[in-house]
Structure formats: structure tokens, C-alpha cells
Amino acid sequence: MIGVTLRGLLGRKLRATLTAVAIVLGVAMISGTYVLTDTIKAAFSTVFAQVYKNTDAVITGESAIGGNQNDGVVPPSLPESLLAQVRNLPGVAVAEGGVNDEAKLVNHKGKVISRGGSPNLAFSVDPKGDQRFNPLVLTEGHWPNGAHEIAIDTKTASANGFHLGDSIGAIARGPVERFRIVGLARFGGLSSIGGATMAVFDLPTAQRFFDKQSKLDSIGVAGKPDVSPAELVGQIRPLLPETAQVRTGQEEAKKQTSDTNSFLNILQYFLLAFGFVALFVGIFVIANTMGITVAQRMRELATLRTLGATRRQVYWSVVLEAFTIGVIASVIGLFAGLGLAKVLNQIFVWFGIDLPQVGTVFATRTIVVALIVGIFVTMIAAVRPALRATRVEPIAAVREGAVLPPSRLAKFGPYIAVVVIAGAVALMLVGLFVGGLSTKLRLLCLGIGALAVFVGVAMLAPTLVPSVARVLGWPAATFGGAAGSLARGNSIRNPSRTASTASALMIGLTLVTLVAVLAAGLKTTFEDSVNKLFSADYALTSENGFTPTSIASERALRGVRGIDVVSGVRAGEGRVFGDRIGVTAVEPNVGTVIDLKWTEGSTATPAQLGRDGAFVSKDYAKSHHLHAGSTFDLETPAGGRLALVLRGIFDPPKGGSPFGDVTISAARFDREYANPQNLFAFVNMSGGVSDENTTTLQRALSRYPDAKIQTKSEFIHNQERGINLLLQLLYVLLSLSIVISLFGIVNTLVLTVFERTREIGMLRAVGMTRRQVRNMIRHESIITALLGAALAIPVGIVLALMVGKAIDYPAFTIPWVTLVVFVGAAIAAGLVAAIFPARRAGRLNVLEALQYE
Asked: Which of 779, 784, 781, 773 is nearest to 839 (CA)?
């Protein structure tokens, strides 16, 4: 039987290839995800290993509230006097202090050089000192050694047309400053630093530029030959203030690698989810394809039974065929993942996510997981077709037009489907609403429930197909002539096959619909929130609209003729009641630019905050049992403890507000937080919004290229741009599952062309033209695609409603225009899927078709 199976597989190369495509794409997604994220992890690991390779001990600031810079927590700086104390220790051979921060570079056109959310790194160097702690490699020129000198990375220089001796702008705490480029550098050990930029200054310049006079951000220490790193750390620790910490170089490298990997693990799981969605779709495609193949091979299988093959042998012959396809497809998909990893990286670059790179990492784990998952999924998909094959009776070998007998449970199919759907919904409701469950258990309930919903709808689909296909096929039958009528009849003829094909497309379209509905709700509530809160004429934000900007740009507007109000909203981190929270700060006049609905307090509350006042949202007050007059402590990253009195409670709109959990006065915030920055600033001008006023504001900000002035509508549009980018990224990633489902439609149509060869020959013999044959296949493909959309869109809307209720989503909005676009996309997908099968059907030779067995 093994030989018979393999020879039969070789005799059906096209069918085997079409079956394998689904597995190839799904496995490629898993393999590509691991390759990409492992490569990025290796790059960051190389970065930190390079930074600390010659460091026995490293001293850094320690946030008093926990967290790190990846969490948005900026640790305090170190006193420069600590460096002299460390150098005097008996075990220290060399110690160097440095400043590291962020500085935005400005191109020849006066625009900030920025690639998405990539960091704008800045370092200090000692040009005359020991360079063992310097991870940068100088490629041209020399290190900066003066107040107006700078070195930049080679990638930024080449991409923006900068050369040694050129002048370049840089901006940090104040207006843009000009520096002369004296050196070009790269990060040792990396082939690419991604979208990051690098600015390098000498230490005195860096301390002045970043407003860190007499301060350092880190101290690197090399011990004497007879002193171990652990001993060196032990000597240093007694010297440290409470806001400082010391680790060995290896420990610091591991810690920073671990902090970075926590984010990269989220990215990895995010991408793997799309890989498993693709494979889940692949199960439907493979099961349907193999089911059709088994039906078409019924006489062949019956002949084998006549010659003595047992049911077990027939079963294992189908399983062996699936195993062979699974192995070959998984191996191809595994190596296709190497190419897909580059495609995924390029997609992220297009969306502004450009991460460091080293040589490609192809780990053993990637090989094992990809192959096991690919083969396992193929085998799961083959179980039902293999069982159907065992029901072929020997008499079918001589019976013309024999069909596979239905299973004993077939008549209970609709009832089982309803039970599966009900159970799936119940499981999702448990995950969404039952208290006391861990996050992992909730996600597990939601994931299994969602998969079961898809399975249940797919099981119920054959019952729905005849009536739904009649409706969806009405335009084809009405306007497509005989070809359209035949296409509608063909879709209804085998409901199970049509339903299985449509179900594969349903999964991808359901997830796309879910995302679209949630995004529409988010946009609606955001716009409503801004319209209710935003009473200013203009908003001042960073160039990209999301990162904080220096308060110097806000101050540059004060005193400008025609400006009535300028009010900034600061942002930082703190700890209250043992939890790390977002802290914001406002100026006394914020009530004139932001309208708040106060439940306790009034519009005068922000002006009454003083040194110890604070206000919070209604929900935060309720969860912590606060009321006007309540007292609590706020801890800052620098170790400060602010005793606060609650002055007011406001009720934010459903879409949220620009304020954190606790809001204090800007004056107190600026004293307690190093490098205070604005999240937003709001401006009122005499005469309101006008071209003249806009020009006045832009002129006042000419020395602040990282700041941007916007009207309310521009502010809404720019803030929603991030939502739109995320939405587009999700659509791109979900498109892989849709592509696989299109191959499912291609498979079905190609195989039904095989199956209906004599029928098509008869139609051609009685006068149907090649064009009509092609149109018939196209109409059938479109009807199948529309069936997938008809199943997907309602399910996606219901899932979005459930998820929204569970997470207390502020609004449920159905994006009708977007859904109409999805239906149009389904029609286009059906047309694309029909290209090859339609051409194949149209080219059938009439005489050969009439003789086809």
C-alpha cells in the first residue's frame, strides 16, 4: 500500500501541490517569525555585550519606583563627585563617567531626522581618555573635542547627505543648536542599528546640552588584574547613594538584554498568533482538498478494497499521503521563512518600526517547532478525509456515479454545530466576565472559544449554504445568463464542499472585521472625547504627535504677540498606593483650554493645586476610595515623596483624557522631575484659528523643529494616524490567512473542474462557449467568496461586541463603509482565485472531456 500511495501521489502532482501551499505559507510565517525575532534579540544582545565587554562594574541610577527606560521610567542621574570617589578605591584600575540621553538631529531642510518610533541616541566620549568603555567604532574623522563639535552615525550621514566638516542641527532641552561634524561612527558588532540615530559629544558639551551639569548617567569601572568583578562591586556599593546601583558588566548586559527581550517576546507572540491563524485556515483548506480528492478517487479506493485492501490499509494510505505532503510542505515552509523574515522586517520598516540587525539567526528550535507544527496540522486535517475513505465499499468499483455514503452522525450535524457554538460562546463569556481568573487562563478561554466558534459556524454552514447561495447567486443568475445560473446551481449542489471552502475565507475575514469594528469604536470615542475636552485654538505636540517634547517650545510661545493662553500638560511616572502610575501636571490656566466635568471641585481647581494639591479621575477615586480632602503620597523615580491632598475629581469622557492617574501642578512637577517634558501644550489666540495666527505660531517655533502646531481637526487626524498604522499592519498580517483561503478556493475549483470534466464536455457539446465556461467558474468563485464574507462579517461583529463588553470598551461602532469595502474585496478575491481554474476549464478538449473517467 505504501508504494501504491506514493505512486498515486506522484500521479496527482497538481492536486498535491495545491494542497501543500496552505502548509507552506503557515509554516513560513512561524519560521519567519522566529528567525526575525531571534535575529533582533541577537542584535540587542550584541549591543549590550559590546557596551560592557571591557567593563568589570557599571554604576547607574536606580529608579525608586521600579521599572526601566523601556517602561518609560527615567532613572535619576549620578553626582559627578562619585567618579572621584570610585577612582580612589584600591581595586579600581580605570573609571570613566558618561552621559547618555536622547538628541534629535536635524537635516538640511530643517526637519527632525526620525524613523518611526526609533530612538535618537546620544552619548558622551572622552576624546583623550581610555576608550575601553566606548562601544562605538570611529570610521572617519576624530572624536568631538569642543563645545561645537559632534560625531554622528554613518547611516544617518549617508542617508541625509552629511559629510565631515558639515554643520548639523541637534535639539534636546532647548532650541536647535548647530554643531560641526568631526567624526562618523558605527556601533561595533552590528550590521544595522535599525532606525536609530546617534549623536556623540564630548562630556562637558553633553552635560551642558542635556542640562546635566555636574551629573553623570553611568560610570564604567575596570578593576585591577587581581580583583574580580564581584569584589569590585563589593568595594563600590558602600559609596553609592540610595538612587544608584552597581552591577558587574556581565550582570548589566544580561539585565538590559532581559528588559529588551520582554518587549521582543510580545512581538514574537504577536506574530506567531498570525502564523497559527494561517495554519488554522490551512486545516480547512487541506481537509476540504483531501475530502474532494478522496471522493474523486472512490473507484480507485473501491478497486483496492476489491483486491483485498482492508479499511485500516485504506485509512493509513490516506494518512501516509497527508504525512508525505506535510513533511515536504513543512520543509519548504521552514526555509521559505528565511525569506519571509526579511519581508516581515521590511513591512515593519514601512510602518516605522526599524530594529537593529545582525546576521540571520536560524535556531534549532525554529526548525523543530516549524516542522512539528506543520506536520501535525496536516495530519489533523487528514483524519476526517481518511475516515471517509474507509467507508468506500468494494461494489463502488463497478457502480457508475457512486458517491461516498454519509456518516452516521451526518443527520445530527446542525444540532452538533449549534451545541459547539453555544459551548464556545459560553467559554468566551467565562474568559471575559468571570472574576478571579489569571490573565493566561482568560486568554486561553478566549482563544479556545474563538477557535470553537469558527469550527461550529463551519459545521453549521452546509445547512445555511443552499438558502444563502440562492440569495448571493441571484445577481449571477439574473445578469450572468446561463453561466451564472449554472454557477449558482453548482454552489448549491454540494453544500458541504462549498461551506468548507467558504469557511477558510471566513476565518480571515472575521478577524479583519473584528479589528475594523474595534478600531472604529476607538476612533469614534477619541473624536468625541477631543470634541468635548478641546476648547483651545491650537495644540502644540512633538513632530510625530506621540513622544513628549521639551517645555522650552512652550516657553518660546509666551510673550508672542496675539497669544492669550499657553498651557502645557507634563507627563511622567510615579508610584501611589504601591502601584506604578502615570503622573501628569498642569498649569493654573489649563481650565481655559480644556473643559472638564467636575464631580468634586470646579474649573478653578487646577489654579488651586499649589505645592501639595492633586486631582484624579472619577474611576481612580472610586477604586481607591478617595474624595476631596483625602491625603496620599506620590513617590517619584528620583526617590522623592510628595504628600498630596486631593483637591478635585473629574469625570472624563468615554474616550479618556490627556491626564494620568494623578495630576499635580506643573510648578511642583518641574521641581521634582528631572528633564520635565510636555505631552501636549494648548494655545488660545486673539482671533482664534486663522492663517495669520498659524503663521505667527510657526514662526515663533522655527528654532524648535521637533515641535508642531495643530488645529483641533489636525490634532485629531494626527493622533488617529497611529491607530490607522496599527490597523493597516494588522490587515497586512491577516492577509496571509486570506491568501491561504484563496488557495483553498483555487483548490476546490480546480478539483471540481477535474470532477466535472465530462459535464463541462457535455455543456461544450451542446453549445456553451469557452467564454461562458470561464464565466461559470468565475461566478462560482465569487459566490463562494461572498459566502465566506456573509459568514464572517456577522461573526466578526458579534465577537467585537463581546470583547468590547468584556474590556468596558467605550463605544461600539460598526464601520459600514469599511464592511462594504470588505465585501468588494471578497468579490475581487473570488475573481483572482478563479483565474487559473477558469482558464483550465475553458481549455478542455470537448472530445477528450466526453471520454473522461
From this structure: 773
How far is it, in rounded angstroms, from Cα 150 to Cα 165? Answer: 10
pLDDT in tens, 818-838: 899 989 988 888 888 888 888
C-alpha–C-alpha distance, residues 801 and 795, integer Å: 10
Model pLDDT for residues 369-390, shown as the tens digit of each residue:
999 988 988 888 888 777 777 7
Give the DSSP H/E element, type plus range, for residue 666: helix 666-672
Give pTM, 2 decimals: 0.79
Beta strands in 99-176 (DSSP E): 100-102, 104-106, 120-125, 136-141, 149-153, 167-171
**What pLDDT is attached to residue 399?**
47
What is the biggest distance separating any 2 CA atoms in the chain, rounded to whole angstroms?
103
Residue 356 DSSP label: -
8 Å CB contact between 202 and 146: yes
CA distance 767 to 420: 47
Residue 613 CA neighbour count, 13 Å, CB half: 19
Q: Provide φ and ψ at 149, rounded to 5°.
A: -115, 150
Q: Extract the C-alpha cell encoding 609.
A: 493645586
pLDDT band at 442 (very low <50, low <70, confident <90, very high): confident
* pLDDT at 432 (0 to 100): 74
The answer to whether 4 touches 317, Cβ cutoff 8 Å, is yes
CA dihedral 614, 616, 621, 627 (to 10 degrees): 40
SS3 201: strand
Computed over every residue of the chain, the mean pLDDT equals 85
What span, in angstroms and rounded, lies between the C-alpha atoms of 279 and 373? Answer: 9
Alpha-carbon distance 157 to 185, whole Å?
10
